[in-house]
Amino acid sequence: MTELADAQAAPDPEALGRSLWGDAWLRLKANKAAMFSLFYLVAMTLVCVFGPFFSPHAYTTIYPDYVRTPPSLSPYPQQEMIQGALADVTRRMRVDMKEMKQEDGRVVFTVTSTKPFDDRNLRYIDRSDTFDDARVESKSPDGLETVISAATMQKYFLFGTDNVGRDLFTRTLVAGRISLSIGLLAGLVAVTIGVVYGATAGFAGGKTDEVMMRIVDVLYSLPFIFFVIMLVVFFGRNFVLMFLAVGAVLWLDMARIVRGQALSIRRQEYVQAAEAMGVSQAGILMRHVIPNLLGPVVIYMTLLVPQVILLESFLSFLGLGVQEPMTSWGVLISAGAANIGSANWMLLYPAFFLVSTLFALNFIGDGLRDALDPKDR
Amino acid sequence: MLLYLIRRLLTAIPTLFVIVTISFFLIRVAPGGPFNQERGLSPEIKANLEAQFGLNDPLWLQYWHYLKNLLHGNFGPSYNLPDFTVTELFREGLPISIQLGASALVLALLVGGTLGIIAALNQNRAADYAVIATATAGSTIPTFVIAPIIQLVFALSWKLLPVGGWGDGALLNKIGPVLTLALPQMAIVARLMRGSMIESLRSHHIRTARAMGLSDWSVVVKHALRGALLPIISYAGPAAAALLTGSIIVETIFAIPGVGRYFVQAALNRDYTLVMGTVVVIAIFTIIFNLIVDLLYAVVDPRVRYD
């Protein structure tokens, strides 16, 4: 009793009060899974946003020589691929290869032809994805036998290539940009609609609330996927409108949560106390209702983002979402599932990126819920 | 109880009516029509087709005709699969989807439920963490990743299962699709079961049962489980409706001739009658299973009465 009185009489200047958010942050920091997920997600975002700038391949570049090339840490072309590519090139030049040897990054080969060799034919070599800088080293006097040398271009395909020969690493990162930004933007759309709608219903109360929530109920009872597909049908396969469509479908839960919160906060004793002390409605809204609404909104938003990413991937998987050559994780996984027998890396890498991101987002959401939910203290 | 049942079935009629009405007009206002193919039909043929199916009538008249046919149990012809009526398509596909969905549901409830109970009984021990981790993974990994991975592992690498196809309902052909359908549900059921079981084990009647010296088995299975079932039941209702009406992902990846594929195809092709048929079937399943959920409440929880 005396201790308590002392503590009240002389507040320790060092023991500053912690704000609700400071408190939540401390608790979140103690949650290892959530913090690791947060770092992972930040790293994933940075890699997806900036990675493609450092990649030697553009996500649209097609390498016909490297269709469905398995992932490898060592550079391509490998030995047998050089021979294959060379055979391909000589066939195009309509010459026969006699002998070939390799010396420090260049191939030197002798070709024979029935007509004198035309130097313009060298462009066939440069045009291939494997060789570069082709030149004629020497010709036999009659011009029928030519020694040609060309540099082999080293290329890295860390994640392999897809079934038209595009670098999967770059594509996975570019897809990550799309998936993450759709998740964020559509999540924001859903949260905005949901919060405005739910808060309006909750504050207005009475008949307005009744009607607004019945509308939500009706939308709920429509098959969800029907709704999404109708939106896609209306908006066409437009990339930006997809954000809006996806966001516009997922706001229903948010609206319900916010309405329920708004209703219950308005009936809390501290709000009644504030009213009794003559605080204005706007003051109550700013000081009490909105800060208390923010917690559930933030939690729900973090759990909404993975839902949106999943929905976008689902639509893209069905071919309704992002269109080629633009790509998203859903598009890549769809292509991977179709080529699973011949090129399983096309499924595994994008699937890993998608799933690990979803994991991280879920852990962050759970961590935030634990950190912000006052009931669990 | 009977009175309640009748009342619920009667309230289902306006719900269905609203759903039919909304989706009818929604699909009709969508741009395009069932006969606007990329390689266009000649205008005469298109006009004839549209006349044959009454697509030139005013919309309210078409709506009226559709409702009248629907009341006679006639879903109409499919526009894009012209040899079939929508009813025939469902008669062929629905049993397949129901078989897969029901097996998946039973599997999910049994395995998920058991895992949940095990986790709850070993709260904060290794078994609990293992279940939580598995459940998190199961509910996070999307079906369109699970399905190809099952194909990759079981069909292509180990050659235990066929890659896909229905195979006239051969057992081996069903394993992949059923697993894919069941895994996410299993994860959710396990999580729900764990939570509600922990709560149920804390309640007074369990303490009393233990104090009276009942065996662990009978405390858990006879008393605690009953109280813990409610959240599972309310989850299983809508989940069952969704599972039994087929999944487009699973049916596409495993090449299963169920009804799950129709919805998306039909909506994209503006196959109005097929879209409507799918919506109605899904709505009926949802209504029925919600009703079953409410009836089961009364069976499981004696405090719930519908008199």
From TrEMBL, chain A:
InterPro entries: BP-dependent_transpt_permease (IPR050366), MetI-like (IPR000515), MetI-like_sf (IPR035906), OppC_N (IPR025966)
Transmembrane segments: 33-54, 178-199, 211-233, 297-322, 342-365
Annotated GO CC locations: plasma membrane
PROSITE patterns hit by this protein: ABC_TM1
Matching SUPFAM superfamilies: MetI-like
Entry keyword annotation includes ATP-binding: no
Domain ABC transmembrane type-1: 176-365
Transmembrane helix recorded as keyword: yes
Annotated keywords: Cell inner membrane, Cell membrane, Membrane, Peptide transport, Protein transport, Transmembrane, Transmembrane helix, Transport
Domain of life: Bacteria
Gene Ontology BP annotations: peptide transport; protein transport; transmembrane transport
Subcellular location, record wording: Cell inner membrane; Cell membrane
Record membrane topology: Multi-pass membrane protein
Family of the protein in this entry: Belongs to the binding-protein-dependent transport system permease family. OppBC subfamily.
Protein name: Oligopeptide transport system permease protein OppC
Organism, scientific name: Mesorhizobium denitrificans
From TrEMBL, chain B:
Organism field: Mesorhizobium denitrificans
Compartments it resides in: Cell membrane
Coiled-coil region list: none
TM regions (residue ranges): 9-30, 96-122, 129-155, 175-193, 239-260, 272-300
GO BP of this protein: transmembrane transport
Lineage, uppermost ranks: Bacteria, Pseudomonadati, Pseudomonadota, Alphaproteobacteria, Hyphomicrobiales
InterPro entries in the cross-refs: BPD_transp_1_N (IPR045621), MetI-like (IPR000515), MetI-like_sf (IPR035906)
Protein name: ABC transporter permease subunit
Family: Belongs to the binding-protein-dependent transport system permease family.
UniProt keyword Nucleotidyltransferase present: no
Entry keyword Transmembrane: yes
Entry membrane topology: Multi-pass membrane protein
Entry keyword set: Cell membrane, Membrane, Transmembrane, Transmembrane helix, Transport
Occurrences of domain ABC transmembrane type-1 (ranges): 94-297
One of the record's GO cellular component terms: plasma membrane
